[in-house]
Amino acid sequence: MHPPPPLVAAAPGVIPPADSRDSDTRRPGSSRTSRVVKKKGELLTENEKKANHIASEQKRRQNIRVGYDQLIQIVPTLTPSQRSEALILQKTVEYIRYLLMEREILEGQVKEAGQ
User: Fold this and answer.
1) Is the predicted pLDDT of residue 7 greater than 70, yes or no?
2) How far is CA 54 from CA 15, 40, 80, in A?
């Protein structure tokens, strides 16, 4: 296994984390159900509650997709064609373990150089 390239804080092409209040995290061409907002004290109808729930669920799923897309961009052993969530998580864990091991090695080298 080749060592992965070093990570930088703002790697090109990495999508920044979506703010939970940001509604512009959808993919181009995707439909969006508007949430119903009423004045304080007004109750929502069952259809309005359902529409709000659907919109919230779509936003949650989109945020998960964005997270997986970010992992594909960051983890060097993943490619955009690999869409299996289980594989993405497995390779991400392997990469984190590799980075932790590299960190320990570098810390040991720094200690030795300082003595």
Assistant:
1) no
2) 25, 22, 28
